[in-house]
Amino acid sequence: MSKPSNRTARWQVADARHHIHPFTDAAALAGRGARVITRAEGVWLEDSEGARLLDAMAGLWCVNLGYGNAELAEAGYAALKELPYYNAFFQTTHPYAAELSEKLAEITPDGLERVLFANSGSEANDTIVKLVRYFWNLQGKPSKKTIISRDYAYHGTTMAAASLSGLTAMHPQWDLPLPGFVHIAAPYWYGEGGDLSPHEFGLRVARALEEKILELGPDTIAAFIGEPVQGAGGLIIPPDSYWPEIQRICNEYDILLIADEVICGFGRTGKWFGCDSFDIRPDFMTLAKGLSSGYVPISAVMLGQRVGDAIANANEELVHGFTYSGHPVACAVALKNIDIMQRDGLVAHVSDDTAPYLQSALRGLADHPLVGEVRGIGMLGAVELVADKAARRHFPAERNVGTLCRDFCFENGLVMRAVRDTMVISPPLTISHSEIDTLVQRARHCFDLTAEKLGIATA
Ligand code: PXG
Question: Is residue 268 part of a domain?
């Protein structure tokens, strides 16, 4: 890389000395210097050297309306001037929280009528863990405490959320998971389905839930949590047979069902919520990211009728909350975000136009010698890079093919996420056809560079 400008170097030095980054090897980053992102517009990021990158990840799966949306900025500014802070702890509320609560009850699936606010997906999932315990205590069933989650799950990084998470790297540094959190197989057909058809495999892994419940005893199991489509674990889209069977099992054994919609929510799967795409009827829903298009931190826990009624009618104080629960500025931006989505018919536009265009463009990559599978739903896409297409065999992990490809993307003006050797995209919902074309062309170019580095011939 050429020598950075003085201002870039100054930020890199300050950052390397004082800023500990999430999910980053600090020493390795200090050696190469962080890329400094200074501004963004639409689907484009700009760095401190003036280079432009197409952000095919919408930040971290969150900037659904794209960058630089003036209406969101103005809604935040107006709230900052009108009521920069107040809380709902002591018998008060404010218009922003009241209206956002009503709006969320309207747009989420039937039965989800009540909401608790937090500031991140992790906090929201932590809150749900507490509410699950509280619910079963209120029901006089205090032995129901264990929560079942899945391999490759990502539910956040606080103690409880990381315990829910099933990406194994998230546990050893912190002596997690905590007791009471167990994991079962994920519906990852491409990687783990073997000779079963996707339909058979979906049923097989759903029934792993029933087996685990019977092994531990239904009286000890409180809840099952799942992302409708697993995001950070490598875009694992369950076969159609999966969710109906999970729903049946949860009903049969009286297990609460938690749908973590932090990525899937707000149009990402082509419907308002992943639960709409897979006909899931959850007791709890976790919302974050797309709730505010990532412009301000805000998350929400939606409560289904059964848990909502129990908690609302407990006739005692709910001993839980954060200073910034339902922060007025965050609520104002989230409200405007939803208003814009409704006014512009964005979810219908995604499902009728942008998503089909994206999915078909992505599938054009399937002929590439490195590509084992292209899959996607709505505005989510994944490409498996493999050594052997017919055998669905990946490269040895130590070759770090995904990271290699990710780095080529980053150098060539495209932000894609590598999960193992699965290249993942989740662009702003507002991306245009021509930007999708650019995305796919750049991806192909970077797959070529990766193949070349691996000594594999391309056409
Ligand atoms: N649930 C899901 C499904 C998520 O994807 C969280 C909860 C936690 O949200 P917070 O706001 O606490 O981060 C997430 C977050 C990645 C990546 O690299 C994914 C997430 C966060 C950071 C990085 O794929 N997802």
Answer: yes
232 in contact with ligand 1, CB cutoff 6 A: yes
Rounded CA separation 27/345 (Å): 46
What pLDDT, on the 0 to 100 scale, is given for residue 1? 55
* Residue 118: CB atoms within 10 Å: 26
Domain count, the chain: 2
Backbone angles phi, psi at 366, to 5 degrees: -65, -25
User: For residue 289, which atom of ligand 1 is closest to its CA?
Assistant: 11
Per-position b or e across 78-115, b if 16+ CB within 10 A of its CB: ebeeebeeebbeeeeebebbeebbebbbeebbeebbbb
What percent of the chain clears pLDDT 70, i.e. is strictly above it?
Answer: 100
Does residue 50 share a domain with residue 88?
no
Q: What percent of the chain has pLDDT over 90?
A: 99
| Average pLDDT of the segment spanning 427-434 | 98
| Confidence grade of residue 406 (pLDDT, cut at 50, 70, 90) | very high
Element (H, E) at 146: strand 146-150
CA of 317 to the centre of ligand 1 (A): 30
CA 260 to ligand 1: nearest atom: 3
pTM for this entry: 0.98
Residue 176: CATH number of its domain: 3.40.640.10
